[in-house]
Amino acid sequence: MDDAADQPPGETWEEIVAKLPAYLERLLASEVYGRGNGRPAAPKEHGVYLFSEGADHLYVGRCGLTERARRVGKGHSNFRSRLAGHSRPSAGHNSATLAWRLTFAALGNEVNEMPKSRADLELHPPFRSEFVRQKERVTAMEFRVVPIKADFESYVFEAYAALRLGTTQNSWATS
């Protein structure tokens, strides 16, 4: 695997960083996509996306080439599939990341009395009920995108956008 292929040839760190403010402008000016609510389907491109409720920017994520997809010869994930993963009623903890985080926030200290494993939590009735509610909430959110072809560049922009927008539901902890 050649990780250097993820960075455009000839671009320096400074050149990539110089693009970030323009990407942020494009992200905030993006058409609002969604599932339902009469919104158009998200494009089948990859890059960085933003979930918001009005002026409250909650979560920035990215879709692109994963190590698992690269290993089995698949291509990039895209905005449409990532939105479905976050909001589909059957989506689990591995794909409905924002709803999962919102569920913990909604339940607060109640979570301390619940099962500890993700698999057990997903089956625990009070947690499961709230998780379903939060996926419905995510479905109603505004979903904006900025296509970015270079995976390395989208990684850098994801962190930049989360910091600049003050997203409340991003986490940089490793899993």
Structural descriptors:
175 residues, three-stranded antiparallel β-sheet
Summarize the entry for a quick read.
The chain is α+β, with helices and mostly antiparallel strands and 175 residues long. It is built from 7 helices and 3 strands; from the N terminus they run αββαααααβα.
What do you see in this structure?
The protein is of the alpha+beta class. The chain has one domain. 45% of the residues lie in helices and 12% in strands. The chain is built from seven helices and three strands. A three-stranded antiparallel β-sheet has the order 2-1-3, sandwiched between helices. A hairpin with a 2-residue loop joins strand 1 and strand 2. Helix 1 crosses helix 7 and helix 4 crosses helix 6. The mean pLDDT is 91.
Estimate the mean pLDDT confidence: 91
Apparent shape: globular
Proportion of residues in extended strands = 5-15%
Q: Which residue ranges are poorly predicted, with pLDDT under 50 across at least 5 consecutive positions?
A: none
For the largest beta-sheet, the strand count, sense and barrel status come to: 3 strands, antiparallel
N-to-C CA distance: 22 Å
Strand order of the largest sheet: 2-1-3
Number of β-strand runs:
3
What is the overall number of helices? Answer: 7
Q: C-alpha Rg, in Å?
A: 17 Å
Question: Which secondary structure elements does this structure contain, and how are they paired or packed?
Answer:
Blueprint: H1 13-29, E1 47-53, E2 56-63, H2 67-71, H3 79-87, H4 97-107, H5 118-123, H6 125-140, E3 142-147, H7 151-165
Antiparallel strand pairs: 1-2, 1-3
Helix pairs in contact: 1-7, 4-6
